[in-house]
Amino acid sequence: MEEDFLWAILGLALVIVELLSGTFYLLMLGIAAFGAAFAAWIGQPFGVQSVVAAVIAAAGCYGVHIYRAKNAKGQMMPLDAGQPASFEAWLDQGAGRARVRYRGAPWDAEVEGTDAGNPVPEPGATVYVIAAHGNTLKVSTRRPA
After folding, report:
1. pTM strictly above 0.90
2. How far apart are CA 29 and CA 15, in angstroms?
3. Which of 135, 132, 133, 134 is nearest to 82 (CA)?
4. Residue 74 pLDDT
5. What pLDDT was estimated at residue 22?
6. Are the C-beta atoms of residues 104 and 64 closer than 8 Å to each other?
7. What confidence tens digit (pLDDT) does each residue in 6-47 have?
8. Is the pLDDT of residue 76 over 70?
């Protein structure tokens, strides 16, 4: 099979997988594979094809990263933001790690703002969810704005 056809198949596969993930990074890699397919089609050796793919991939992924960083503030707040949770116990008070009950289930939590003059939560106190990262909540004693 010819190299340009293989690069094109790889690019198409990456674009299809991107449609399932929605991150845009795989789209950039797919476009890079199409660029390498073009380089192969015009007769460039494999080394040049690889460099073309690497440069397009790096530039595309960097562009997606910059775009996401610029627009992070304009994105919708997390659905859990501002919701109350019940403080249960400290796991490591020095590191700000605790256990809270949220939506009827126990969660690991990172308590923010305990060193800035905010009250240190005690068992039974109400804390507010700032964000959820995987199975860890970021919480604060103050309700987010």
Report:
1. no
2. 8
3. 132
4. 67
5. 81
6. no
7. 999 999 999 999 998 888 899 999 999 999 999 999 999 999
8. no
For residue 105, is pLDDT > 80?
yes
Residue 130 near residue 139, CB atoms below 8 Å: yes
The type of residue at 98 is A
Q: Determine the Cα–Cα distance for residues 138 and 77; give it in Å rounded to an integer.
A: 14
Distance CA 92, CA 95 (A): 6
Question: Read out DSSP for the chain?
Answer: --HHHHHHHHHHHHHHHHHHH--SHHHHHHHHHHHHHHHHHTT--HHHHHHHHHHHHHHHHHHHHHHHHHTSTTSPPPTTTT-EEEEEEEEEGGGTEEEEEETTEEEEEEEESTTTTPPPP-TT-EEEEEEEETTEEEEESS---
For the four alpha carbons of 54, 59, 63 and 65, in that order, the dihedral sign comes to positive
- What is the C-alpha separation between 96 and 91, in angstroms, rounded? 8
- CA of 137: how far to CAs of 79, 97, 99, 123, in Å? 12, 10, 9, 17
The pLDDT of residue 44:
95
How far is the C-alpha of 14 from the C-alpha of 26, rounded, in Å?
Answer: 6
Residue 116, pLDDT above cutoff 80:
no
